[in-house]
Amino acid sequence: MTKTLKAAFLGAGYIAKIHSKNLLKLTGIEISSVCDIERERAENLVSSIGSNSIKIYTDFEKMLNECNFDMLFICLPPFAHSGQLEAAVEKGVHVFIEKPIALDVNRARNMVEAVKKAGVVSQVGYHMRFGEAVKKLKNLIDCGIAGIPVLFDGRYECNSLHSSWWRDYTKSGGQVFEQAIHLYDLSMYFLSEPESICGFTTNLCHKDVSDYTVEDNSVSIVKFKTGALGNIAATNCAVPMEWNGIFTVVCKNITAHFKDANNAEFIYTSRDDVERENVTSSTDMYFEEVKAFVQAVRGDGPALCTIEEGYKSLCMVDAVVKSSGQGGKVVKLSF
């Protein structure tokens, strides 16, 4: 008989509603408690779950001390991380944490060390890794069919003021930290660890918005340890109310053009006749990442996209911002 796993949520916003809904699609799961500094928001999440047995808290330490749970879903904005993960893992709780895992790389490094010391399962919410087209290319790279990956070309596009904390640089870190980080993560996932980065950021379309202090355009060039290269751009000046992550991965034997993580054109270039294959899927990536986390907690699968990966991708976007502040100077990375 499958053991019932108890889950708790820290942060009760939009992404928490998605994760809780997907979590309850799995068997042997119980959501025991929800914590948010705004009680009404926590109550709304509990109401959407539809259970009268879930305890509601506005104090995380109190929830941690009073409730026994196996898994904690940390769904906080980046500025709100202040030791909650470390406190949870010290008690043996497995953690799923949304990206970016912090605003400061030193804070993030402490989080990684805490997870390692506790020996618990961790996963970062990089849902794009779970798209069918992404998984297919990763498998082709890992088995050698794709040949060595040589280039990543990515672009993130949207046009929205978002929430007040998002457009505050001190709270979100900017678009590179909050959105484009998905593409930086994928570039590392496909091409290996980064070695150095240079970048530029600007604000061109939102100068008249008084509380908008983040960049609305960014570009970077990444050199990876294998010698592969990447260029990633992001803009918040594109089509209103559209969020698009578009990227191309060039390997020695395959070029893959991604419309998104689920849908791509694979072009096999090592064959006598160039062959094209369209990969299409409507896979729910958010469900797949939650399922993978639960499987890892149960010991039924490997830990995927661990907090170490979240730390490395955070270092990448941090390097972009640092480079821009130094006029595009190359920033070396080491882990």
Overview of this protein structure:
Helices cover 34% and strands 25% of the residues. The strands form two sheets. It has a nine-stranded mixed beta sheet. Strands 3-2-1-4-5-6 form a six-stranded parallel beta sheet, with helices on both faces. Helix 4 packs parallel to helix 5, helix 5 (105-118) runs antiparallel to helix 10 (307-325) and helix 8 crosses helix 10. It is built from ten helices and 15 strands. The longest helix has 19 residues, at 307-325. It has two domains: 5-127 and 288-306, NAD(P)-binding Rossmann-like Domain (Rossmann fold), CATH 3.40.50; 131-280 and 314-332, Dihydrodipicolinate Reductase, domain 2 (2-Layer Sandwich). By secondary structure, the protein is an alpha/beta fold. The protein starts with a strand and ends with a strand.
Task: Summarize the SSE layout with pairings.
Elements: E1 5-10, H1 14-23, E2 29-35, H2 39-49, E3 55-57, H3 60-66, E4 71-74, H4 84-90, E5 94-97, H5 105-118, E6 122-124, H6 132-142, E7 149-157, H7 169-172, H8 175-191, E8 194-202, E9 217-224, E10 229-235, E11 244-251, E12 254-258, E13 264-268, E14 275-279, H9 285-298, H10 307-325, E15 331-332
Parallel strand pairs: 1-2, 1-4, 2-3, 4-5, 5-6, 7-10
Antiparallel strand pairs: 7-11, 8-9, 8-15, 9-10, 11-12, 12-13, 13-14
